[in-house]
Design goal:
The protein is built from 3 helices and 29 strands. The chain has 432 residues and is mainly beta. The protein has 2 domains: 175 residues, no CATH class; 216 residues, no CATH class.
């Protein structure tokens, strides 16, 4: 079987057309420079591609999308280049088993199997026999080392990885596709619909959430106006190491996240926004103020940059699109605390909130009302404190660290729900 091989700078999954085709020589140059490019494999007489390989070495990423004869993606393989330059981790795979030719691509009822693998030998296999509309079965995948990792071929030496899927019994014969002339000068960005390498979650307009007058939307309310941040006292961190963690999911290994800060007292704040909506129960317009984020304010200097805080073993190269690292909670609760007194502060949290110990004095345990902050504990020996706050659910919450132009920590923020979107200045709203 003859398989035509073409190169391009990007691939549009909506139209299934390569964007800005390039020569094999230019593709080789992009490969050596680590720049993104795609390889498209086609068979004569078939409109849909056999597979599309998506490469971006600077992002430690190689992807593979396999298509059926109806143009539907049936298999997605996400590979990552980590510390060994000679092999790739099969980080993530998902296979769709369409039940008939009329089923749309990615139909929610389409059965699928997803496998996630990690370099430490762990993983997870999720089977959804009725797609997203039904239940799922989660197991530990039994994967050999040679199935977890694959050799990294040299440029131009990649096999047709979907050959067996397409029923090819003999090695295909590869032919280079002719390069069509680009319709532009090649300087503009790819259309928004084109593939791009996966990126971890981005910080978004965190600083604007604490700027009174800024207009945002949380996805539920079309327009919200940021009000003055609400100050809820201070937090003592005499050790100079701020812990951000889920106090309800302590695994004995200490706090989930730690951030060095100047020793001393730092302000606790809530970022709040006001919005008006029609309340069906009252039959009238209602105005309310909601908390969007909590913050430890280290300095009044504005943050020039924001970064996701990481644990020592967190590897951003493993994150998929909008992936996050952070602290885990099973009780919709997080906390800021002095890491130097973590164990005694956590013990006070459990005695006060869980055991309701009547012997705790107000200098050790203090409830906080009418706030996303729930309570405060204080270690008498060190003076370190813990302030617990509510989130809007269980799961993993990223911790965002703001830094000044000089690189100093000026604030540590946790969004209690999702990241709001900043609306343009003036009266217009998004989509208006």
């Amino acid at each position: 079987m003859v398989v035509e091989v073409g190169y391009a700078q990007a691939w549009d999954p909506d139209t299934r057309v390569p964007w800005r085709p390039i020569s094999v020589g230019e593709a080789r140059e992009r490969d050596a420079a680590g720049l993104p490019y795609v390889v498209v494999y086609r068979a004569a007489g078939r409109q849909a591609p056999l597979e599309v390989r998506l490469v971006s070495w600077r992002d430690h990423y190689v992807g593979l999308w396999v298509y059926d004869s109806h143009g539907r993606r049936t298999y997605d393989l996400d590979m990552r280049l980590l510390d060994d330059p000679a092999r790739l981790l099969r980080r993530y795979t998902v296979g769709w088993n369409y039940t008939g030719p009329a089923m749309a691509e990615f139909d929610e009822a389409c059965p699928r199997i997803t496998v996630e693998l990690f370099p430490d030998g762990t993983g997870r296999r999720t089977e959804e026999p009725r797609g997203k509309r039904g239940g799922s079965y989660v197991t530990v995948p039994r994967v050999r080392d040679d199935e977890r990792w694959t050799d990294r071929p040299d440029f131009g030496q990649w096999p047709l990885l979907s050959a067996q899927v397409h029923g090819l019994t003999k090695p295909p014969v590869f032919e280079l596709a002719e390069v069509a002339a680009a319709a532009d000068d090649g300087s503009g960005p790819a259309p928004a619909t084109c593939w791009r390498p996966p990126r971890p979650a981005q910080p978004g307009p965190i600083g604007e959430l604490f700027r009174p007058g800024a207009r945002v939307t949380d996805g539920y309310h079309p327009e919200m106006t940021v009000v003055q941040p609400r100050r809820i006292g201070t937090l003592r961190v005499p050790s100079g190491l701020l812990a951000v963690s889920g106090p309800d999911s302590n695994d004995g290994d200490g706090p989930h996240i730690t951030v060095p800060v100047p020793p001393g007292e730092h302000v606790l704040e809530e970022a709040q926004a006001r919005h008006t909506y029609h309340c069906e129960w009252k039959g009238s317009q209602v105005t309310r103020t909601d908390t969007m984020a909590v913050r430890v304010l280290v300095s009044e200097i504005p943050a020039a940059t924001w970064e996701m805080a990481l644990r020592p073993d967190d590897d951003p190269r493993l994150l998929r699109e909008n992936g996050i690292f952070g602290f885990d909670t099973d009780g919709a609760t997080g906390c800021f605390a002095d890491a130097g007194a973590w164990e005694p502060l956590l013990a006070l949290f459990e005695r006060g909130l869980i055991q309701a110990d009547p012997d705790l004095g107000p200098d050790e345990y203090e409830g906080i009302s009418d706030s996303m902050y729930l309570l405060r504990t204080r270690d008498q020996a060190s003076g370190g404190e813990l302030a617990a706050f509510a989130t809007t659910g269980d799961g993993t919450y990223p911790v965002w660290v703001g830094r000044s132009e000089a690189g100093e920590v000026v604030g540590v923020v946790v969004l209690v729900e999702g990241m709001p979107q900043l609306l343009p200045e003036g009266g217009a709203t998004v989509g208006a």
